[in-house]
Design brief:
The protein has helices at residues 2-28, 32-62. The protein is mainly alpha-helical. The protein has one domain.
Amino acid sequence: MLGQLEEVFVLWSAARAEANEAYDAWCVAPGADAYAVYRAAEDRSDAAETELANLTAGALILV
């Protein structure tokens, strides 16, 4: 279980960093395309965060 939590944490962390970079790029050069890239990255980050939360909750219940 711990290995899976670590793996999902790394995936979430990378997705969060990508979303932050996409947001910064959108702020520098606003536009529909940049916003779409940012929102897609934010959605991936949200999905990874949900998966991390679900795994974490499951790990706490099993302890």
